[in-house]
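Continuing the batch. This is chain 6 of the set; chains 1 through 5 are on the previous pages. Same settings as before, nothing changed between runs. Recording input and output for traceability.
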Amino acid sequence: MKLVSYNINGVRSAYKKGLIEWIKNSDVDIFCFQEVRANEEVCQSIFGGGQLNFFSEQKSKFDDYFKIYNCGNIPGYAGTMIMSREEPKKVLYDMGDLWKDNEGRTTTAFFGDFVVVNAYIPNGSNRLDFKMAYLDALTKHLERLKKENTVICVGDFNIAHNEIDLTHPKQCASKSVFLPIERKAFEKILNLGFLDVFRTLYPEKREYSWRSYSSRLPEEMQKYTKNFYKYRIDYCIISNDKRYILKDCQMPDLPYSDHLPVISLFQKNNKK
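Output for chain 6:
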């Protein structure tokens, strides 16, 4: 099973940069997008399933995928989306009694023997209390789900877990993304019995899933700026029940967003 988690920072912007061609050629079982930043009608017009026809030439390209749009009610803000080859048995557009918002931040899809939670964790720079409340609800949500299912949770967590996961740990020690309270919240989720897929496979590897604009400048220009921060804040985590074998996890440097996709490969453990 091949699963992609990708904060696309606006579906219209990513579309103009060529995201659709990459999706078409990726041979992926499940796509989980965060920060779609568009209403459902716009998403449907690009990926299919709606009445609008702005990009009709693309609709047939995704007929093999079941599409779940959770765009929220705030125009141009947040939102999540899932495309899967297998139709889910059930979908939750929030976290039940644990959490409700109008921003489309959480989509949970139940498949045969596993559950996928697509989460866009709030940025804590302006709403740290909101972020911590969301993380608390997500922790309880994942704990409930893993009692009966293999759970794969993906998304933009807006947290760099350890110093290896960002370029400037000292400078970021008092900034949201690397605050101790945020890192402890992420650790609490892992301690439920989850594996950070990338870090499990590559314990010492330094790679990042978000880069500031200046970090994408040519090397000869970077010397003129100090703000070349890079973080690994996008994750795929899986409940450690050994029902699936971790095969690979990559973050290719693609130009469609300020984030990079997290591409995870799993194999069913038939011996379990």
